[in-house]
Design brief:
286 residues; alpha+beta; three-stranded antiparallel sheet; three-stranded mixed sheet; globular; binds FE2/S2 (inorganic) cluster; 2Fe-2S; Nitrogen fixation protein NifU
C-alpha cells in the first residue's frame, strides 16, 4: 500500500482549479486514455501577457494525477511563463510533501503539460519530451513502444531525477511497465547518463589519509551534492563521519520526502565515485 501525505489526500479530495478556461491563452494536453492518464492544462495570462493569472485542469487519472495537477495549477499562478517553465516535477511532488516513487510519473505529466502549453503559445516546436501524446510528432528515437516514449525524454528524466534502475524509470515515466521489451534499452540509457555525469565529475584520488578523506567528504558534500539538492528545494547536513560511515540528515524538501532513500543512495554513490569505494551513507533523524 502506498503512503500518501495528508497534502496529497487533501488535493485529491478537494482539487483546486478543476475545469477549463474558455478564453485560455495556452492549452497543453498530454497523455492518452489508452495509457490510463491524461491531462489538459489551461492557462490565462494577464493583459500584458506576462504573468499567469489563472490555470485550470481536466484530468483522467489516479488520485496522484489529480493532486499533482491541482498542485501545479496553484504553483504557477502569478508566475511569468519563464518562471513557470522552471517548475520541475520534483517541485510538484515536494509541494505535496512527496509522492510515492511509483506515482512520480503523475508529477512528470504535469510538468510536460505545462511545457507543451507554453511551447504552443509561443509558436515554437513542441518539446522533445512530449511523448505521452501519441497523436503528436515526436523527436528522438522511440524506446518504449507501449507508451511512445523517446530516448531524449527518458534521458532527461533519468538525469533530472538521478535515477539508477530501470524500475525507477518505470515509476517515473511508465516506460517498461507493460510488455517490458524496452527494459534493456532503458538500462543502456541509464548507463549512458551515468557515464556522462561521471565524465564531468572530478577524478577520485588514489590514496587518502583519514584526515584527507574526511576533508574530501566534506568538500564533495558542499560542492557536488548540496547544490544539486538545493536546486530541488532540498538540503542535507553532515552529522558525523566515523571511518567509512558518513551520517547525514536531510533538511528542507528532502526531510520526510518519500524518495529520501534514493537520495541517500545517490549521495553514497557520489561519495564512492569521488572519495572512496568503501563509503556507507546512513540517514539519521536529528
Ligand atoms: S516497449 Fe516499453 S513496456 Fe513495452
Amino acid at each position: 500500500m502506498w503512503d500518501y501525505t495528508d497534502k496529497v489526500k487533501e488535493h485529491f479530495l478537494n482539487p483546486r482549479n478543476v475545469g477549463d478556461i474558455a478564453d485560455a491563452d495556452a492549452v497543453g494536453e498530454v497523455g492518452s486514455l489508452a495509457c490510463g492518464d491524461a491531462l489538459k492544462l489551461f492557462i490565462k495570462l494577464d493583459d500584458n501577457k506576462e504573468r499567469i493569472v489563472d490555470a485550470k485542469f481536466q484530468t483522467f487519472g489516479c488520485g496522484s494525477a489529480i493532486a499533482s495537477s491541482s498542485a501545479l495549477t496553484e504553483m504557477i499562478k502569478g508566475k511569468t511563463l519563464d518562471e513557470a517553465l522552471g517548475v520541475t516535477n520534483q517541485e510538484i511532488a515536494d509541494f505535496l510533501g512527496g509522492l510515492p516513487e511509483e506515482k512520480m510519473h503523475c508529477s512528470v505529466m504535469g510538468q510536460e503539460a505545462l511545457e507543451v502549453a507554453i511551447a504552443k503559445y509561443r509558436g515554437g516546436p513542441l518539446p522533445v519530451h512530449h511523448d505521452h501524446g501519441h497523436d503528436q510528432e515526436q523527436e528522438g528515437e522511440i524506446v518504449c513502444k507501449c507508451f511512445g516514449l523517446t530516448d531524449g525524454f527518458l534521458k532527461k528524466v533519468i538525469a533530472q531525477n538521478r535515477l539508477h534502475t530501470a524500475e525507477q524509470v518505470t515509476h517515473f515515466t511508465k516506460a517498461g511497465g507493460a510488455c517490458g521489451g524496452c527494459i534493456p534499452k532503458i538500462k543502456e540509457l541509464i548507463a549512458e547518463v551515468l557515464g556522462e555525469q561521471k565524465q564531468d565529475a572530478p577524478k577520485r584520488p588514489e590514496k587518502l589519509t583519514n584526515l584527507r578523506k574526511m576533508q574530501l567528504i566534506q568538500e564533495v558534500l558542499e560542492n557536488e551534492i548540496r547544490p544539486q539538492l538545493w536546486s530541488d528545494g532540498g538540503d542535507l547536513e553532515l552529522i558525523d563521519i566515523a571511518g567509512a560511515t558518513v551520517q547525514i540528515a536531510f533538511r528542507k524538501a528532502c526531510a520526510g520526502c518519500a524518495s529520501s532513500g534514493y537520495t541517500a543512495k545517490f549521495v553514497e554513490q557520489k561519495l564512492r565515485d569521488l572519495v572512496s569505494d568503501d563509503i556507507v551513507v546512513e540517514e539519521v533523524q536529528q
